[in-house]
Design goal:
The chain is an alpha/beta fold. Helices cover 39% and strands 23% of the residues. The protein is globular. The two termini are 36 Å apart.
Length: 339
């Protein structure tokens, strides 16, 4: 599924912690890794009273050369030897330049971004916390965000095999299912063969005062939805998730007052917070940035951002395909109108 993986680097060890994961994904899928660093013009510019910010040409040249040298050094690391690599240095706003690379329609378009959630502040380094949020909110491709000091680790099974278990929260909207294909491919690529696991979950919001009959009805509806989603995956009705990935599948539901808190607790603690189903501690959370509102559905955009702030687990954020397509049509209409 992944053919071109974008890895933004700001020169910090925190940003570089994503390299082992990107390298493993690239080798498993035969993908090319694009290493990108951005010389942040806003941090480098000198402001004058009578004029706007100005960057002396020698400063620009020096920083661009240093950035290229940095990428050359990174590309020689042992974990990247033998991997297909591209190296790019851009000048501008880091978030804007990363999104520009992700949105570019080239012969080898970006189909995954792997980045850290936090770097260093300062003149030559970006504040990756805010950058990561902007990328996750606007990127047209899945974004895998690793937390500072918390790399994506495989857990060792009882049989000694390594595996990744991903928690995928869903609701009753089709949009919430868009996180399943990229999550499945990441889990399959990083796990020992036939040992990856997808754990579907739905958080049922329980009113403060509810009788047993209503509670049982709510649990029954959630179980039916999770069963239907699982069956769709098994039957190959969810695109790009076939039997060749050799993944196991389970589901669990949790009764909560707050959806974001429920997702984090279920991912980090497992069965301790599961109402019904098979729940274990997970290594990764994968979710869409927007679902639908209304009965049985949640506004996933705000929930995803809250999960990003609350969990220390790696988070795969996927924007729904129909939203991206709508933005493309709007952009094309605007460009045509401007001609």
């Amino acid at each position: 599924m992944f053919q071109h993986i974008l890895v933004p680097l700001d020169g910090s060890s925190c940003a570089e912690q994503v390299l082992p994961v990107a390298a493993r994904l690239a080798r498993a899928s035969g993908a090319t890794i694009m290493l990108l660093t951005v010389v942040d013009s806003a941090h480098e510019a000198v402001s004058y009273r009578m004029a706007g910010p100005y960057m002396p040409p020698d400063t620009i040249e020096r920083d661009l050369t240093a950035a290229q040298s940095y990428l050359d050094q990174v590309s020689q690391r042992s974990l990247l030897i033998g991997a297909s690599l591209e190296k790019h240095v851009d000048l501008g706003n880091p978030a804007a330049m990363i999104l520009s690379r992700a949105e570019a329609l080239t012969e080898q378009p970006i189909d995954l971004i792997v980045m850290s959630s936090h770097g260093y502040t300062g003149i030559k380094r970006w504040f990756l916390g805010s950058v990561a949020e902007k990328i996750a909110r606007h990127a047209p491709v899945p974004v895998l965000i690793l937390r500072e000091g918390e790399p994506l680790r495989t857990h060792v099974r009882f049989d000694g095999m390594s595996a990744i278990r991903a928690l995928i929260p869903v609701d009753t909207s089709a949009r919430s299912l868009d996180a399943i294909p990229p999550a499945a491919h990441i889990v399959a690529a990083l796990s020992s063969q036939e040992h990856g696991h997808l754990q579907l979950t739905q958080i049922a919001v329980v009113p403060e005062h509810v009788d047993k009959t209503e509670r049982d009805r709510l649990i029954r509806e959630v179980r039916q939805n999770l069963d239907a989603v699982g069956q769709s995956i098994r039957e190959g009705l969810v695109a790009d998730v076939g039997p060749d990935l050799h993944l196991t599948l389970s589901w669990a539901l949790s009764m909560e007052r707050d959806i974001a808190e429920g997702i984090v607790r279920l991912a980090e603690k497992g069965e301790q917070f599961a109402e019904v189903g098979d729940a274990e501690r997970c290594d990764l959370i994968a979710m869409t940035t927007h679902g639908a509102t209304g009965l049985g559905k949640w506004a996933v955009g705000s929930i995803t951002e809250r999960v990003l702030h609350a969990t220390r687990l790696p988070l795969l954020i996927v924007r729904p395909a129909d939203m991206i397509e709508k933005e493309h049509r709007q952009r094309e209409s605007q460009e045509q109108a401007a001609r």
